[in-house]
Structure formats: structure tokens, C-alpha cells
Amino acid sequence: MRLGILGAGKIVNEILPVIKEIDGIKVRAIAARNEEKLKKLTEEYQIEKYYLSIDDLINDDEIEVIYIGLPNNLHYDAMKKAIEKGKDIICEKPFTSNFKQTEKIINLAKEKEVIILEAISHRFIANAIKAKEMIKDLGDIKIVSLNYSQYSSRYDDFKKDIIAPAFSKEFSGGALMDINLYNISFVVDIFGPAKDVKYFANVEKGIDTSGILILDYGNFKATLIGSKDSIAKTSNTIQGNKKTMQIPGSVSTFEKFEIINTDGSKESFDFNLKNKHRLYYEFVKFKEIIDKRDIKEANQLLELTRNYMEVLTKARYFAKIYYLDDKILE
Fold it and tell me: For the whole model, what pTM was predicted?
């Protein structure tokens, strides 16, 4: 797989050492605006070349697959251009700014027969896969509660009007899109689309810095908390009338989980490979799908992405949080 990378931020710095561990993936080029960062990354990871233009990398005939690690609002245009060039795509979460953009990209990808995959780590982590299989052992689901609260190093700057993309309306940021999406995708993977979506957000300068999302499944409710302006012990529980599943830490890493019986006894589980980064699993899977040209599995994953983006868009609109991209597509 000849890979080209768009972006040079935090997530790109996280994936590059992971990619080096996987046979058959070669990063041929990287593109971003900051030439100093690009020079450092090309030297450290033996990347052949860099571009200061997104278009130049997309137009590079040596690149087969494009990884998009750009700010959220740039995902749609980058994917659209890559699809038109017949490139397969791995796009960081969130997939796009809103549901309409996601629909357009999915339809275009199917028309052009390219593979597009959204990078959401837990979907391929061994513990998460096994935990989803064991949900049936819990009995009738009564309560689902996930809390991912992580005080952002950029929040103090945000209060001083130094706005990073993660806190920017223009860049399609906010706690829902940046951090609560992990909770949303995990719950929606298991239970499917909810009957109703409500988002009660703490909004500052037009963006949600934290909030509580309620997914109504009729016979039970799911409460999903995502916070970038405060901290709490990350805790996740799925409570059934027979057993409860408890997941310590974020579902994005899924380091272990427990099953608790009604008598209080518990059993711990850990199916993950030792000493493997959370992103290792998804890139191994992505390579397999792309190498096999497994359009069927890629499209099944895109349907999950469609579900996440529908929840995200409904939730934002309920909280009256709007992006520039929402207006463009109206």
C-alpha cells in the first residue's frame, strides 16, 4: 500500500510509528502547511517527499491510498478530490461536518468504486469486538452510561480567545465531535440508530465544550457524556437485568473490561495483543480490506459511519450548534 498523508498534527504523529510496525504499508508522501513540521517528519520516518499543497499530494500518481488527518471541516473537500482521482481513502473521525456531506461522499464513493474507511479505533480493537459479542449475556438492557471527560490542554487558551480547531465552529469542532463520538459510535454499533436524540450542551462562544447526549432506544436510554472543559474518572457501564458490563477507561483504547453478576461477583477480560497501540488494529484491518478490494465490508463500515453522522448532526441541531458547512449545504 503506497500511502499519502494529509496533515502533520497530533493524530498524524500518533499513527506514523504505528504504521512502521505493519508490513506492506509504505508512506510515500505527506502534505501540510508547516514546512518545518514536514521536514522533521520526513526525516524521522524516512518519508520520501512532502508537499505544501493538499492538491499536489492527491494528484501524485505514486499514491494509492490517502490518509486524511486534517481539521474536521477539511475532510469533505479532501475526500471529494481524492475520490475524483480514484484514490482509496482512510479518513480520521469525524467523517465530515454533517450528515448531508456524509451522504454525498458515500454516494460518490460507490459511484466511483473507491474504498473509504473512517478511522475510529475501537471498532477493530480485540477487546471491543469481544465485548460487543458478549452484550447478549447481560439480559434485557436497562441503562447505558458512558463518560469520557478529559480536560483539554487547549481549553485555557480558548477562554483567552486563542481558538484551536478542536474548539472552533469554523473548523467543525466541539466536544461532541471530538470526544463524545467515541461513545456514540460504540453504542450505535451495538444497538443501532436510536428512536430519539437529544443533546444538552455547555456552550461557550457558540461551541460545545462539554455536554450530555441522550439516546432513546424505547425500552432503555443511553447517557453519553463528553467533556473537554472538566475532568472525571472515565467510566462506562452497560447494565442488564442479568449482568453488567463495565469498561474502565475510554472505549477509544478499550484496554480491558469486566462482567459483573447481580451477586457482585465479577470476571475480568483482556483479549488485546500485548504492547500494541490502539491504532495498530485499525490499520491492519484497513490494509486487509484495501488489499482484497473488499468493497462489501467497506460499504458495511460506511453504513455505520452514516449512523454516527446522523446522530451527531441531530444532536448539534437540537443544541442549536451550527457550522459554516451546514449553511453551505442547505
Answer: 0.95
